[in-house]
Amino acid sequence: MFTGIIETTGKVLAAEQQGSNAVFWIQSNISNELKIDQSISHNGICLTVDQLQPDAHRVTAIAETLTKTNAGSWKEGDLINIERCMPMNGRLDGHIVQGHVDATAVCTEIKTLAGSWEYRFRFDKQFAALMIEKGSVCVNGISLTAFHVTGDHFTVAIIPYTYSHTNIQQVREGSLVNIEFDVIGKYIQRIASLNQLSQ
């Protein structure tokens, strides 16, 4: 489980297709602290460390992950948001993030304000019930608050610290980002849909 508070960024050193999977070597300043079989959030995707080097670690994304996330477009030199799982005695500074990406969204607009930025994203209308005004949303692993929510768009505000310490700085209009909706909202929607079926 994660919080959406990005710990550091990593650089893709290599990306290789292996059958239906993709294998990535990621260089970061915490790679030397990781362990084999550890679950790490990469752009909001929970991936397992399967090999280590002194300053890099390797993860494998299966076909399902490549279909539902932006991992299939990662290439050498790309910057990836990284977060280790939350310690049980830690503070939940963001919101509950599972690392299970629900969908991707496309950046449709970026506004540069006086000291901050606003990013607007378009998502699939099938997820409209999971996005609420002032609700939590995870974008490339970053815990953010959604506003100006419509049936297929939402906006997030980015402060300078987040901008300089995550890969949101590399997102442009047309960029594809990973989205994880609030897990509590997903359970409520599931319960509501089951109640409708039983009536």
Automatic annotation (TrEMBL):
Transmembrane segments: none annotated. Residues 1-95, 96-192 form the Lumazine-binding domain. GO terms for molecular function: riboflavin synthase activity. The lineage of its organism: Bacteria, Pseudomonadati, Bacteroidota, Chitinophagia, Chitinophagales. PANTHER family: RIBOFLAVIN SYNTHASE, RIBOFLAVIN SYNTHASE ALPHA CHAIN. Pathway: Cofactor biosynthesis; riboflavin biosynthesis; riboflavin from 2-hydroxy-3-oxobutyl phosphate and 5-amino-6-(D-ribitylamino)uracil: step 2/2. Its EC number is 2.5.1.9. Pfam families: Lum_binding. It comes from the Bacteria. It catalyses: 2 6,7-dimethyl-8-(1-D-ribityl)lumazine + H(+) = 5-amino-6-(D-ribitylamino)uracil + riboflavin. Keywords: Repeat, Riboflavin biosynthesis, Transferase. This is Riboflavin synthase.
